[in-house]
Specification:
Two copies of one chain form a homodimer. The relative contact order of chain A is 0.12. Among the domains of chain A are: about 120 residues, Uridine Diphospho-n-acetylenolpyruvylglucosamine Reductase, domain 3 (2-Layer Sandwich), CATH 3.30.465.10; about 100 residues, Alpha-Beta Plaits (2-Layer Sandwich), CATH 3.30.70.2190; about 80 residues, Alpha-Beta Plaits, CATH 3.30.70. With about 450 residues, chain A is an alpha+beta fold. The first copy, chain A, is built from 16 helices and 18 strands. In chain A, the strands form four sheets. Chain A has a seven-stranded antiparallel sheet with strand order 15-12-14-13-17-18-16, with helices on both faces. Chain A has a five-stranded antiparallel sheet with strand order 5-6-10-8-9. Chain A has a four-stranded mixed sheet with strand order 1-2-4-3. In chain A, a hairpin with a 4-residue loop joins strand 5 and strand 6. Chains A and B meet through strand 9, helix 7, helix 10 and helix 16 of A and strand 9, helix 7, helix 10 and helix 16 of B.
């Protein structure tokens, strides 16, 4: 429970509409997209760096957990106040401080939505490349805290490639300024990227300097249908061996296609058991060459057909409909986001089929195949105890395979609370110890998002 | 002096041709491109990670400075054993461990030359983008330790954008493994980029996983000559406002042009006082469009002429000849590598002209204008005490202006010993303290490259 003294200090600092202690109001900040629920005892809505600073100092004095939060769209539990304390919602720090097109930079506060950045950049012919599927309603602060990425990462990289500098307040209450305003800069240690992806465990980001990229002049799509998984996996490796990178290369397995069929009966060929949705961008001439190379690379024994899509927007709509459809068919899904080297995808995807049979579990797999980043969804009924155990065993098998293939356990979601039990499979003990010591250096009282990212 | 016990332990570990204690032999490892000289008491040449590990442990036991070194091409004194001790030359760790084209990855030991990586990648249609002017003879370990960049950074970024993971041994003697093998990965803190640019003060890199990029199909050049600096600076900002990024945008001021004229009398128009060397790459069609846009963007009042260069290689040869020419005309040059936001280049470059008059100092300025990264060279006679004082005053003025313009003190060279007195101008005290504490965490006995990067 919060001390009366702390509550009173926060009431003095913030007006009632920016400091909630009513459990009903606090409950709104108890969850994210992980389906776990941990209500905070209070929610604070700072508007300024100074207010964030004061709140951090108060939490240190009272040894109270403080859990920074963007818009709560994360899937790994990273923003949940698992040990109680105060949820620090940055959602009202909404200023775009500057739009500096000559230098291809936008400076913004953490609560600004990814979409708002796109809206500010687009009229000038620019965009900010990180594109998590939540982009319309997730904040740049959250994007940075998780080093968010999406389908376009195959060509454009993830958040860590598109932030020049940060202002932040460490768990110890130090106001720091990292990085610089220019695209080159090698003065001091790279604290910018140390904070990117640190899931609110080291510091609270209060301002970000974002690097913009010019919008491509043309975007086009390709769809390719395959009779079998193996042919599709082979096509992925053939596409990624081309010099031209697609701007997206999305894979859908048979389970995914069946979900879409349920909603759109005539959309897909009957004999398709795997599909690629491919996007290319650039100039009209370049795209023509790239499309022709990609259509060639799709030619495998099991190819049904590959062709330029007439409507790229419709393509993405089908892909984006998948996650909600998954929710409908299973009361719980274990949604992983592992990554394997692209040339091991044939081996990995066929192993998933094997595991599905072996553990008698329905799984649906799709994702950003160009980066080897596959969303493995195990569909389970949480009331079926035996199924839950089989799912855990299966997951363990999947993670071991990922590590054996030189992959990583998370390409997008992060560790949060969901994957902390498994981090030791990937990161060795000395490296993990060093990370823990870095945490302690930034946040000696362990007030910032305590318990996350590290094994309990 | 080294203790007899340490020398004996190292003699036991390494054969005589991999452990030097003869001062004459050690002297070869006393300098870099900063013109400072600090002989080590010994030089060790490990071949394996285990040997590096043992050497670090021994230096901890004997509290002896250990200064990691690639090929000694740095200009900031970063690899000099200023406080004596042992130079740890990684130059014989020369294995390219794997060339994995399907996944666009090369794994290599730190002593491998940048050029050797290019040679391994090129037959497959790939390259590794970091391109310091020393690329032919500098090592990837050194490139990583300094986050090296070069002319192509304007399109391709610097070293920190092209390394997926590292193996390293910290100053405390912990073997760590950072990052991953895939292009996406968000498991744990980003220690990879914390080590990149850390100038050998945190850990010794023993293996690097490098991300490759496809070679462009065509490369073309443009030269543009201007009657005055202002017109040239305006052209730079107009070029960088185009959506298409040039693959290089190099600026040469009047001082630079006069140096070239001394060697190549008929190469340049007589009335040119500033020049741009521009490179574009991509497909033939794209290049045609980009060249036409860039030629348009060069149109300013003082433009003499802008045209596609017939011979791109010759263009770069002239540019690369500049540094040695500078050496010839002045016994000492203060070679800075500041960065300012591109749209402040007109203000910055005209201020440099003013400072040159005010402090009566010859200066020659050129550099990677597309990133706002300008090499400011103050030409001085070190025996002229008054000139040396004026140069110091002028430099201080330049650095203050850079910071006021929201720039950074170093875009490529790093801090080393050369710029540590100035780092406080750019990095505030709390951030610098945090960096010092990170140093202490990685290297509690301060054995690794002691004294570098931080103010004394």
């Amino acid at each position: 429970m919060l001390t009366a003294e702390l509550v009173s200090a926060l009431h003095n600092l913030l007006p009632p509409d920016r400091f909630y202690t009513d459990p009903v109001e606090c409950y709104t900040y108890a969850y994210d997209n992980s389906r776990k629920i941990f209500p905070p005892q209070a929610v604070a809505f700072p508007l300024t760096t100074d207010e964030v600073h004061t709140i951090i100092n108060l939490c240190n004095q009272h040894n109270t957990p403080l859990v920074p939060r963007g818009r709560g769209t994360g899937t790994a539990g990273g923003s949940l106040p698992e040990r109680g304390g105060i949820a620090l919602s940055l959602e009202r720090m909404l200023n775009i401080i500057s739009v500096d097109i000559a230098n291809r930079v936008i400076v913004a506060e953490p609560g600004v939505l990814n979409q708002s950045i796109q809206n500010a950049a687009k009229p000038h012919g620019f965009f900010w490349p990180p594109d998590p599927s939540s982009a319309a309603y997730s904040s740049i602060g959250g994007n940075i805290a998780t080093s968010a990425g999406g389908p376009h990462a195959v060509k454009y990289g993830t958040t860590r490639d598109h932030v020049l500098g940060l202002k932040a307040i460490t768990g110890a209450g130090e106001m720091i300024k990292t990085g610089c305003y220019t695209t080159k800069g090698v003065v001091g240690y790279d604290l910018t990227r140390l904070l990117i992806g640190s899931e609110g465990t080291l510091a609270v980001i209060t301002e970000a300097t974002l690097k913009l990229t010019a919008l491509p002049s043309v975007v086009a799509g390709i769809t390719a249908y395959f009779q079998d998984l193996e042919s599709c996996a082979t096509a992925i490796t053939q596409i990624m061996a081309l010099p031209q990178l697609p701007s997206a290369l999305e894979f859908l397995d048979n389970g995914s296609l069946n979900l879409i069929r349920g909603r759109h009966p005539d959309m897909l060929p009957d004999d398709a058991n795997a599909m690629l949705m491919i996007e290319v961008d650039g100039s009209e001439q370049d795209i023509a060459i790239t499309i022709s190379s990609i259509l060639d690379a799709c030619k495998t024994n099991g190819l049904i057909r590959a062709s330029r899509a007439e409507n790229t927007a419709a393509l993405w709509k089908a892909r984006k409909a998948l996650s909600p459809l998954l929710r409908e068919i299973a009361p719980k899904k274990i949604n992983e986001d592992i990554v394997v080297p692209v040339d091991t995808l044939p081996e990995f995807l066929s192993a998933l089929e094997r595991f599905s049979n072996q553990y008698q579990l329905a799984n649906v797999n799709f994702g950003h195949a160009g980066n080897g980043n596959i969303h493995v969804n195990l569909l389970i009924d949480p009331n079926n105890a035996d199924q839950v155990i089989r799912a855990e065993q299966c997951l363990d098998k999947i993670f071991d395979l990922v590590i054996r293939l030189n992959g990583t356990l998370s390409g997008e979601h992060g560790i949060g609370s969901e994957k902390r039990a498994f981090i030791g499979k990937e990161i060795d003990q000395p490296t993990l110890s060093l990370m823990k010591n870095i945490k302690l250096l930034f946040d000696p009282n362990n007030i910032l998002n305590p318990g996350k990212l590290f094994p309990q």
